[in-house]
Write a structure and sequence with these properties.
globular
């Protein structure tokens, strides 16, 4: 079918639906709804689609569109649920089950006939954005594919949804935390329901801030609302019966002022300086008290070392890259045969931290420092020849984060992950030794196509190209267990010593052909030229990205109808 996606932004769910439909042979294009209904309607007519799907739309579909084409809306709630804050409310209210509904657009929002729906269990300790990219996205893709089949059959009659009261937007008055009354569980639910957007508005340290993200602290206590500690950029605040860690802050926008953006809490507010005990040593991995906040952890099971990291938004700042490198070097000193890199859920990595760069006094210098830091990490992985390294991707990876994964000997990817192995949309050439690792896996021609097309790939498509070695089809919460079992089998395999010998020999041959230092130097030369040029598009693109400015029009590479394989 010729399918057109309508979306307010090409977000994670829209990307996944786009890629999943292409995998199944559909011709897919995208149009962004940017506030001009007449222009949008003209664009839709120009595509003449067989079907219109809106995976993430924050405005109503124009009547001229839904009256002319079958238009399916992906609503993040079960049948009958209506309103713009459905998932926020589900998380804040502590719902144990939730769902996704694919319904037909009609004049009344979220009230059209249902073409498909799917339910899922809500993990009790997961934030809204993680849930959205995980369990909800899995359910949404299943429901969308079923709905497409039903539309294509021409024989299915959609079902009238049950009556349900419209739930209005969840405003800050309902999200606000009462630090002197709300127990830790309630505080965490409020923080997790707003973790990515819009945040929870709060007043402390002489200003108004949006709080983003929340993790429990089982040991520290103090006067409710007081700041108890800082660690790795996060701040710990006391509740009436415990404490919570808040990784990121965003200042409230002043009237007429520029848009603000999230930053690590201690960077956003300069008064929240890191204490000396929070700085990890350079020779070993951090070993926090069990249950306390840590964005990098290391543990061993048999002869497998698991180096886990979880960074908000998958963003790896200079500091995070350096700390992860320290932890990786520690893992290399341990008596393990296999090192597994990656978190338990959600993002693997999205590369350099554009928000931190934007906030730096000298963004060009910080851009280079960040690239150099992630390059150092990749180099350490590439030159590890005495053990196998596995990149385990529980969720999405993009740009330098996708290339970071390619430095490993094997890439294991959860079936629901989306990969974006390119840099072009940020106006960058890229580094992370991609000119070595990407062609090594897929060949020069495919490497050139992937970086130029700048389109998302499913894990299955990435495996077919050679980017991914194993696709793990499981629920988000099952990925860690599956990876643990797979890594144990790998470490116990009889062929491991021979494989390590072959790996070392291959690295020596490649080094003789072209040293890794030559790849890095050539990449950084291109990157420095961009960083040091104030007129380079990268600077404006970065600023627009971190401030979430809408583009003026749909990018051409999305508007072009893409069949399977591009």
């Amino acid at each position: 079918m010729r399918i057109l996606l309508l979306a307010s932004a090409f977000n994670s769910l829209t990307q996944r639906v786009f890629a999943e439909l292409r995998d199944r042979g559909h011709t897919v294009a995208v149009e962004l709804a940017l506030g001009d209904d007449r222009r949008l309607t003209t664009a839709v007519h120009g595509h003449a689609p067989d079907l219109v799907i809106a995976p993430m739309l924050t405005t109503a579909v124009p009547e001229e569109v839904w009256s002319a084409y079958t238009c399916l809306i992906v609503h993040p709630g079960p049948p009958g649920d209506r309103g713009p804050s459905s998932l926020d409310r589900a998380v804040q209210e502590g719902r144990e089950r939730w769902g996704v509904t694919v319904l037909q657009a009609v004049a009344e929002m979220d009230a059209g006939p249902v073409w498909a729906s799917a339910g899922f269990t809500v993990p009790p300790d997961v934030g809204k954005s993680d849930l959205y990219r995980g369990e909800l996205a899995d359910a949404a893709v299943g429901a969308v594919l079923l709905a497409v089949e039903r539309v294509a059959s021409g024989s299915y009659t959609p079902v009238t949804p049950p009556e349900h009261t419209w739930q209005p937007y969840l405003r800050q008055e309902e999200r606000r935390i009462d630090w002197h009354r709300d127990p830790t569980e309630t505080v965490l639910r409020k923080l997790r329901a707003a973790d990515s957007q819009p945040g929870v508005l709060d007043t402390f340290l002489g200003g108004e801030w949006y709080l983003h993200g929340g993790h429990p602290e089982p040991h520290l206590t103090g006067p409710p609302g007081e700041i108890l500690a800082t660690r790795h950029g996060a701040v710990c605040r006391a509740t009436v019966d415990g404490a919570v860690w808040i990784p990121e802050l965003r200042p409230r926008r002043t009237p007429g002022g520029p848009a603000t953006f999230k930053l690590p809490a201690t960077l956003a507010h300069q008064g929240l300086g890191e204490e000396p005990r929070d700085r990890p040593p350079t020779t070993r991995t951090p070993e926090p008290t069990a249950g306390s906040y840590a964005d990098i952890t290391y543990e061993e099971r048999g002869t497998v070392g698991f180096l886990r990291f979880r960074f908000p938004g998958g963003a790896m700042s200079t500091d995070r890259c350096r700390r992860l490198l320290d932890a990786y070097r520690h893992a290399r000193t341990r008596p393990v045969d296999v090192i597994v890199l990656g978190g338990e859920r959600d993002f693997f990595s999205n590369g350099i931290h554009l928000n931190v760069i934007e906030a730096a006094p000298d963004p060009a210098a910080e851009s280079l420092a960040n690239i150099e830091a992630i390059d150092d990490l990749v180099a350490e992985i590439l030159t590890t020849t005495d053990r196998l390294v596995v990149a385990a991707l529980p969720g999405n990876a993009a740009a330098g984060g996708a290339m970071l994964a390619l430095a490993a000997d094997e890439v294991w990817c959860r079936g629901g992950a989306v990969l974006n192995p390119h840099y072009r949309l940020m106006g960058l050439y890229g580094s992370e030794y991609w000119t070595y690792t990407l062609p090594r896996r897929v060949g020069p021609a495919v490497a050139a196509r992937l970086t130029e097309d700048a389109l998302p790939l499913t894990a299955t498509a990435a495996q077919a190209l050679g980017l991914v070695d194993r696709v793990v089809d499981c629920a988000p919460g099952e990925f860690t267990g599956e990876v643990t079992r797979m890594a144990d089998r790998l470490a116990r395999s009889a062929g491991l010593p021979a494989r390590l010998g072959a790996k070392k020999a291959a690295r020596q041959r490649d080094e003789a052909v072209r040293p890794l230092s030559a790849h890095r130097a050539a990449e950084l030369e291109r990157m420095r030229a961009v960083f040091d040029d104030p007129a380079a598009p990268y600077h404006a693109l970065r600023s627009a990205f971190v401030r979430k400015r809408r583009p003026n029009e749909t990018p051409q590479h999305l508007r072009t109808e893409c069949p399977n394989g591009g």
